[in-house]
Amino acid sequence: MSVTDIHIAGYRSIHKIRFPVEKLSVMAGGNGVGKTNLYRSLELLHAAALGTLSEEIAREGGLPSLMWAGGRKVTDEPRLVLEATLDGVLRDNSDPDGFSPTYRIEIGFPDKISTAAFDEEAQVKLETITIRSRSRNVVLMERRGPSVWARDADGERVLADDSLLASETALSRLRGGYPEIDAVRYALSEWRFYHAFRTDAGSPLRRPALPVTSPMLHSDGSNLAAVFATLRFIRGETRDLDAAVADAFPGARIEMEMPGRGAEFAVRFPELPNRPFAASELSDGTLHFLALMGALLAYRLPPFIALNEPETSLHPDLLPALARAIAKAAMRSQVWVVTHSRELTDALAQETGILPRQVVRKEGGTWLEGLSALGIFSED
Fold first, then answer.
1. Short-list 210, 196, 296, 185, CA closest to 245
2. Among 294, 191, 186, 304, which Cα is nearest to 244's?
3. Which ranges carry the ATPase AAA-type core domain (predicted)?
């Protein structure tokens, strides 16, 4: 269920851009070029599937704060457009490789006559899921206003709902009887985003985790100890995790016991062998590195992992080990990395042969170096 193409328009520094997405995408560039805006756009697609899009936009300051700030024609209605094409989501006997659905959502300000949204609340203007079949586009779902149409099991176009609020997404609300829509929602909702793990004294990383089998790391890392315990006591092996820790901190090892009322772990270092150090005692950089290992080497990985500036608080000596863990994760999942670090991009290139995409400014908007207006990179 990989992402093949992304289209974004009207979001902060992004005027309009469409580009292909690879198994491992590395986005690099200077401050202020819009790397984080690309990352954040994907988070908003994820929120559309979860049904939290309006809340996420409100947390950013509302639509006035996140709309494209550059020039536009007087006749252009301000719209935020998010679109993703997914590969291998829909399958049937006629095409064993599966169809590639495209989910698109357009967001704008409420109409003056509308009473279904607050004055500056994000309002869904258009929402569609289409697939390419026999050289033509087939619409599986179309939402305009409060009404959403979808194709039933017989392929007939039916009214699926006519009572959606302006702030609700059809993708999150339409459930049951529409397996194709369910598949797209599931694919997008399973994405995971990891950005700036807290490592202060009150960080959830430093506290015991609930003793619950945890095949995947939460976005805030609060179940890190349970993720490690799941590898040790449920899978029964921690080979990749042990190797990554020894790679970063030669001679060090993670120690843990079967969870009781909580899951905990500690690290024993060779230079201080007399006792292990609990998570509450570890340095910020060490704890951050371990959280990244929990995200990248967990029992089960999400279909899409996005890391925003994972090098934060890490010593440069740890970046080759991080690059090797990212490369290993990219064999099991699709990984997106946003980074400032030349050391990390060099290490990733050495491990995978993949060079970073340089994020630049072009005509005032965020762009990717080498990308044509047709959405194709020059080397392709």
1. 296
2. 294
3. 172-344
How buried is 233 (Cβ within 10 angstroms: 0-12 exposed, 13-18 middle, 19+ buried)?
A: middle
Question: What's the distance, CA 92 to chain centroid?
Answer: 27
Cβ atoms within 10 Å of 244's Cβ, excluding its own: 23
Q: If you ran DSSP here, which 8-state letter would residue 156 be given? A: -
Dig out the tokens for 299 from the structure.
């029992």
- The residues facing 268 across adjacent strands are 253
Q: Tens digits of per-residue pLDDT, 31-57? A: 999 999 999 999 999 999 999 999 999
**Which residue type occupies 223?**
N
Q: State the chain's mean pLDDT as an integer.
A: 92
Cα gap 21→84, rounded to integer Å: 10
Structure confidence by residue, pLDDT tens digits, 190-244: 999 999 899 999 999 999 999 999 999 999 999 999 999 999 999 999 999 999 9
Whether the full predicted model's pTM is greater than 0.85, yes or no, is yes
Query: What local confidence, expressed as pLDDT, does residue 54 receive?
Result: 93
Assigned token pair, 14: 């992004």
Q: What pLDDT, in 10s, does the model give residues 10-33?
A: 999 999 999 999 999 999 998 999
The angle formed by the CA atoms of residues 244, 26 and 304, to the nearest 5 degrees, is: 75
- Output the CA angle 259-261-263, nearest 5 degrees: 40
Q: SS3 for 180?
A: helix
By DSSP bridging, strand 24-28 and strand 357-362 are parallel
Distance CA 92, CA 179 (A): 12
Total length of the chain: 380
Residue 299: closest CA among 353, 237, 249: 237
Residue type, position 97, single letter = D
Token pair 């201080």 is at which residue? 272
Element (H or E) spanning 21, and its range?
none
Q: Which residue has the tokens 């550059």?
A: 70
In the chain, what is the straight-line distance between the N-terminal and C-terminal CA atoms, in Å? Answer: 22
